[in-house]
Amino acid sequence: MDAFDHPDGLRAETRKCEKHGPYPVRTKTVRGHKFISGSCPACVTERDREVKRAELADARSSLETRLARSAIPRKLRSCSFDTYIATLPEQQHALRSCRAFAGDFERERANGGVLILGGNTGTGKSHLAASIALSVIAQGATAMFATVQEIILMLRAGWQRRNGPSELEVLRMLTRVDLLIIDEAGVQIGSDAERNQLHAVIDGRYREERPMVLTANLSAPELLDVMGERIYSRLREQGQWVPFDWEDWRARRPPPPAPAFQLSP
Ligand SMILES: [Zn+2]
């Protein structure tokens, strides 16, 4: 029990803060010793605010660090689910699937969920993949965005060890990031060595049960053909295929304007 809880010998007094002026305290004298309870409320508020400001700055700088490390291309950094135009039912389904994946990322992280955004070019797959990455980063997790070519180049640079991290370190980084986005996964893979490198990344993440999102301008059988049975079966085991089968929005031109007047036939 706090001595100040007992009313005997309790007195209300006023103290003075050099900065904020007078403030009330309670004092109690016990066997000749005077105890004081209370401090300048304005000082307490200021201190709390300072702590909150520091915490916010920490959170922001860690967010910026995670964003910088994510390697999301600049032109995709302003993407969001809200700016994805979904008018067709298939587009709405794609948007819903991607939103759900990002929205329940803790579950995807626990299960090592895989989302494959596959189909026609110009349907906004990278837009949605970047939106997932940005959402996951905002939630406090780490994400990395790379094309298949970039992954292969990173591993090759590591193998050649030009000052940077070793191949194993690159592989470890690609395996450990909370979410790996593999963009343009449908490009033709040049050699068996490159296919093996990609397999090492996907297999590493599969074994660690870490989530992945892939985009591919291909149908499922075409992706199987490009990636090979080994990689593809790994992906499909945990993977949800989200079809992007509608027409390329860039190919859709507005109808030609009607002539202002027509000569009578
Ligand atoms: Zn004060």
- The name CATH uses for the topology of the largest domain is Rossmann fold
**Global shape:** elongated
Question: Strand order of the main beta sheet, please?
Answer: 5-6-7-4-8
Q: List segments where confidence is low: pLDDT < 50 over at least 5 consecutive residues.
A: none
- Care to count the β-strands? 8
Rg, Cα atoms, Å: 29 Å
Beta-strand content bin: 15-25%
**CATH level-two architecture of the largest domain:** 3-Layer(aba) Sandwich
Task: Specify the CATH class of the largest domain.
Answer: Alpha Beta
Helix/strand structural class: alpha/beta
Note the run of SSEs as H and E.
EEEHHHEHEHHEHEHHE
Task: Count up the domains.
Answer: 2
- Largest β-sheet summary: 5 strands, parallel
Listed once per kind, the bound small molecules are:
zinc ion
* N-C termini distance: 104 Å
Q: Portion of residues in helices? A: 40-55%
Mean pLDDT value? 86
- Helix segment count? 9
Question: What report would you give on this structure?
Answer:
The chain has 265 residues and is of the alpha/beta class. The protein has 2 domains: 15-70; 71-244, 3-Layer(aba) Sandwich (Rossmann fold), CATH 3.40.50. The protein has helices at 41-70, 89-103, 105-111, 125-138, 148-160, 167-176, 192-207, 220-227, 229-238, and strands spanning 10-17, 21-30, 33-37, 114-119, 143-147, 179-183, 212-216, 239-244. The protein is built from 9 helices and 8 strands. It has a 5-stranded parallel beta sheet, sandwiched between helices. Strands 1-2-3 form a 3-stranded antiparallel beta sheet, with no helix packed on it. The longest helix is centred in the N-terminal third of the chain and has 30 residues, at 41-70. The chain is elongated, with a radius of gyration of 29 Å. It starts with 9 loop residues before the first strand and ends in a 21-residue tail after the last strand. Zinc ion (ZN) is lined by residues 17, 19-20, 40, 42-43.
